[in-house]
Amino acid sequence: MPAIEVVLGDITAEDVDAIVTAANESLLGCGGVDGAIHRAAGPRLARAGGALAPCDAGDAVATPAFDLDPPVRHVIHTVGPVWEGGGHGEADTLASCYRRSLAVADEVGARSVAFPAIATGVYGFPPEQAATIAISTISATPTQVERVRLVAFDEATYQLLTTAAQG
């Protein structure tokens, strides 16, 4: 099980091998965290992602990190579920995002990975439930990743992730 750290900050400035982005199926970039990562990585990220699209909800793929500062070498794109009330497999799909991202991290040899709070923005997943799913899934997923940083973009998300991590 990787060491899990919760931090408040800018995911594009993390000192990790790979950054996970909460993408849409086109992998071309959009708003929120995905937009910030695309801006930091430069236009080649959208071209590389678009060449791998579409990506289904719950799946993940990797591209180079392009203009992101080393040691970041990879961007792992995962597509979260759109919240439809919770009765449409959203929790399972969100858990799959974390499992598949860790599997892709293993495929590219990443030993440290930064995750945002997947699907809690415009996709509407309830943040408290998402935090619990993130922690429990990462903790239960076999991986060669040694360190996971959950990067909260605001204080409320930081508090939810910290509470979930404390169990």
Automatic annotation (TrEMBL):
Coiled coil: none annotated. This is O-acetyl-ADP-ribose deacetylase (Regulator of RNase III). It comes from Micromonospora palomenae. NCBIfam families: PRK00431.1-6 (NF001664). SUPFAM superfamilies: Macro domain-like (SSF52949). Residues 1-167 form the Macro domain. PANTHER family: GANGLIOSIDE INDUCED DIFFERENTIATION ASSOCIATED PROTEIN 2-RELATED (PTHR11106), MACRO DOMAIN-CONTAINING PROTEIN (PTHR11106:SF27).
